[in-house]
Specification:
Layout: H1 20-39, H2 45-72, H3 78-117, H4 160-183, H5 187-217, H6 226-258, H7 268-293
Length: 294
């Protein structure tokens, strides 16, 4: 909510018909299509992905701008505030289910699929000397026939993953300090700690990119490295995408704070982004333990 919003607004504000949802869906279509074609070595995949991202970023810029204008115009009251809170809660719940499905795939592969394939009755499914270990085709393990899956080295949980964990945990602390400062109407302190949170997010993304480069070039760990590679990049990649979106939202909120938006009493735009960022932190802790350590 903005500095100009008032709880006394009697009516539930209904915006004019908008093209934003349809355009966002179009952008997501090209993103998914481009990404799927890129991983299958299509020459036009990266261009479709880039086109989709440009559409989505443009839509988000315009959509956020419209919402900010409506907020600053005093259109939002307590009823809209309640709707925003419920909407953000359900959105985060859907994200929990999203990542829960991915963690479930990892658990099923490790606990059920690999042991079942290692049963003597199922050797013919893969190859005779297959060993039911996780990951099944890593350096030192039995290689697949004809090197269908090349041997690779798993990512060490130390150094990069641990540094990234410290960064996200620190960002959770800084955004909490910023929230308390916002409630105390200390705008300068709020802005300082929000920019610190943004910095932690940007550094995390940079180290995540370097980790992928290290995985591909030094460890031979790729998206094609069997079920381990698929789950590793699926979980860390989607989480990284959420960190990217969260960092963008943090930047927008911080810029709004610098323009004088929000008050100590009404600042759900700030609060909703803080909820989302804490969710991203919790997901990373699950990744750090289940993907890197176990």
């Amino acid at each position: 909510m903005s500095a100009n919003s008032h709880g006394s607004v009697p009516n539930y504000y209904v915006p004019e018909p908008s093209r934003h949802p349809a355009m966002a869906a179009l952008g997501l279509f090209f993103i998914i299509m481009g990404a799927s074609q890129w991983v299958n070595d299509s020459s036009w995949g990266p261009y479709a992905l880039l086109f989709g991202m440009l559409i989505l970023l443009t839509v988000l810029y315009q959509w956020f701008g419209d919402a900010i204008h409506e907020s600053e115009s005093g259109e939002y009251g307590d009823n809209i505030d309640a709707s925003f809170r419920w909407s953000m809660s359900w959105f985060i719940f859907s994200e929990v289910m999203f990542f829960g499905a991915f963690f479930g795939a990892l658990w099923w592969a490790r606990v059920h699929s690999v042991p079942a394939l290692g049963d003597p009755d199922n050797f013919s499914v893969l190859w005779p000397d297959f060993k039911a270990i996780w990951p099944s085709v890593a350096a030192g393990a039995t290689a697949s026939p004809a090197q269908i899956i090349e041997p690779f080295v798993t990512m060490s949980p130390l150094w990069l993953p641990t540094i990234n964990t410290a960064l996200l945990l620190s960002s959770g602390v800084t955004i909490t300090i910023a929230h308390h400062a916002m409630r105390e109407n200390d705008r300068s302190k709020t802005i300082l700690f929000m920019w610190m949170t943004v910095l932690f997010g940007v550094v995390f993304l940079g180290l995540q990119g370097y980790e992928y480069y290290h995985a591909y070039t030094d460890l031979n760990l790729k998206l094609t490295s069997g079920i381990f590679g698929s789950t590793f990049f699926m979980l860390t990649g989607f989480h990284g995408f959420h960190v990217f979106l969260g960092t963008l939202m943090l930047i927008i909120i911080t810029l709004r704070l610098q323009k004088g938006h929000f008050t100590a009493e009404r600042h759900f735009g700030f609060e909703g982004v803080a909820w989302y960022w804490h969710f991203v932190d919790v997901v990373w802790l699950g990744l750090y333990i289940l993907v890197y350590w176990l």
